[in-house]
Each structure stands twice: as structure tokens, then as C-alpha cells.
Automatic annotation (TrEMBL):
PROSITE patterns: MDH. Belongs to the LDH/MDH superfamily. MDH type 2 family. Its EC number is 1.1.1.37. The lineage of its organism: Bacteria, Bacillati, Actinomycetota, Actinomycetes, Jiangellales. One of its GO terms (biological process) is tricarboxylic acid cycle. Substrate binds at residues 92, 98, 131, 162. Keywords: NAD, Oxidoreductase, Tricarboxylic acid cycle. The active site is at 187 (proton acceptor). GO terms for molecular function: L-malate dehydrogenase (NAD+) activity. It catalyses: (S)-malate + NAD(+) = oxaloacetate + NADH + H(+). This is Malate dehydrogenase. Gene3D superfamilies: Lactate dehydrogenase/glycoside hydrolase, family 4, C-terminal, NAD(P)-binding Rossmann-like Domain. It comes from the Bacteria.
Amino acid sequence: VHAPATVTVTGAAGQIGYALLFRIASGQLLGPDTPVKLRLLEIPQAVKAAEGTAMELDDCAFPLLSGIDITDDAGRAFDGVNVALLVGARPRSKGMERGDLLEANGGIFGPQGAAINAGAADDVRVLVVGNPANTNALIAQAHAPDVPADRFTAMTRLDHNRALSQLAAKTGASVADISKLTIWGNHSATQYPDLFHAEIAGTKVTETLDISPGGKDQAWLADEFIPTVAKRGAAIIEARGASSAASAANAAIDHVHDWVHGTPQGEWTSAAIVSDGSYGVPEGLVSSFPVVARNGRWEVVQGLDVNEFSRARIDASVRELVEERDAVKDLGLI
Ligand code: NAI
């Protein structure tokens, strides 16, 4: 059994928080050998609700849960943190412009990045879930100059899992047999779920589905698969009357678990990480790539052939990330 890890969850009283905390405390985030100390960060108005969730966590009597602290102070929340899950964010309200949204979130993720810089453990790993996730991660990272940039990530794992599920439904395959699918770019409607390298039980999807230009399945790819994955969040809100929460929490668990424990041999997943310039994505942007986790670090899967269809879509999503970065720069947030 390892020493307890400190896991901080922001927005802990929100709906993703409610779906996430019990799974962390049960050991699904860091495995059965690592006890967890939970830190819940909330805004003052929501501290009481977080306390209620903490009462329920107590009542589960999780053997691995070795303590819960609740605070509205980022400095306290991130002191000694090993895994920071930044879930709380300012949602877009009606009529809010992108600049206003970025500014409001800059006011959250800048100070949180600074608090991580000041107090986090040396091995800290940060996953930003709160939207706009990629740019919020960029803002936090920019405020943490003493933390290696590769410790800041944003979540596209939910998009990845949605794409797995859609491809399984189309082909009749089991999700467990699908590998090498990629989400590129921004966690937004411009994201590009790429099937051109995907395999089902070791056979390339392109041998089963003719998704090449002019192929009989190209229309399905362009007009069904890609938009269904990209707009799944809106479809969930439409059906459920609330945004995806349990599936988002599940993806956060998957992301951190893989980061810490490694991705299975011969497979990859998707995560938004600080670009090193791979695949023409400008260095420093937080963009989603095909990644493997080795020795506790994400590495971009190199050497993939990117066809014209994919290139145009990756470029469009990356362009949006550049615009968001330029906007937060103009606002003085980074
Ligand atoms: P929610 O509104 O139920 O909960 C958000 C919580 O964050 C609230 O309790 C609020 O009090 C708290 N909060 C706000 N500002 C805070 C701050 N400065 N410090 C600490 N806590 C703060 O929202 P929900 O459904 O839990 O979603 C959270 C975020 O996750 C949203 O931004 C949502 O858009 C995003 N999301 C991202 C996904 C992804 O794939 N990357 C998927 C689904 C949601």
C-alpha cells in the first residue's frame, strides 16, 4: 500500500462532482493500493452542499478514503495536491459572448494555476474538465511556471469514448475490440474524431468501411459519425435536461487512471496536452492528440499518416484553439 494521494476536485458540489467523488474514493482513479485524501474546492455558496456530499462519502465507509477537506480557498485546496481535477467553471449564460466567457473563466483558472504553482506536490497532474476545457488548461498552465507544462491536460476522453460507442454501434463490434481512434483538436463542436487509423480486432476500419473520398461510407463519416460525436453533449442536454455528468466523470477517471498506470500495449487514447509542435499543431496550445501513457507521462503517437480530409478538420479545430489563445492573450489572462 502506497502513501495516501491528495486528490483535489473543484466544483465538487456540481453534478460531475457528485458522479466523480464516489468513484475516486472507491479506488477507481488511482487503484486499490493508493489511499486517497479528498480536497473539495467550491465557491462559498456551495460549500454547504459539498459538506452534504462529504457526509455521504463518510457513509460509504470506503476503506481507501483517508480524509476529506472542504474549502473555498484555492491555496488550501491545492496545497500538496497530487491529482487536481478542475471541474468547476463558469458556464456560458444566455447572450454571453466568447470574450466574456473566457474572461470569467480566466478569473477562475488563473488563480487556480497560481495556487497549484505555489503549493502542489512535485508529481502533480492536472486534468481540466470545466469548459472551455482546453483554453482553461492553457490559462492555468500559464500561471504555473514552476510546474512542468506537460502536467496540465484537458479532457477529450469523453469525446473519445463517445466515438468508440458510435463506431461500435455502426459496425456491430464490441467497444473492447476497437483501438487506435483519435480525437484531435479542441473539446468543442470543431473537434475531429479520426477513424482512418482505427482498428476493430486488429483489422483496419478502412477495410470494413469505405470512408475514403468518394467511398460509399464517406457520407456516413462526414454527415453522421463526426457530427454525432461532436454534438453529443448537446443531444444529452436535450434528452436529459442536464448536461452529461456520469459519463464525464467516467472519462475523467479513465484519463487519470491511464496517465498514472499507462495505456495498454498496442493501443492509444485521446487527451488534450500541451503541444510540442507535433502534427503541425502550434507549440504550447492545449490540443487533443493520439497519445499513449508511459512511465506516468503522455506521449504523442508519432508518424501517423494524415490525409487531406483529416488535415482540413484538424486545422479547423486548431485554428479555433489559436483564436481562443489570442483572445485570452488580448484580455491579459495569459
Ligand atoms: P455544475 O454547474 O453542476 O457544477 C459546477 C460546480 O462548480 C458548481 O457547484 C459551482 O459552484 C462550482 N464552481 C464554480 N466556480 C467555481 C470555482 N471558482 N471554484 C470552485 N468551484 C466552482 O456543472 P457540471 O455539470 O458538474 O459541469 C462542470 C463543468 O464540466 C462545466 O464547465 C461543463 O461544461 C464541463 N464539462 C466538460 C466535459 C468535457 O468533456 N470536457 C463534459 C461535460 C461537462
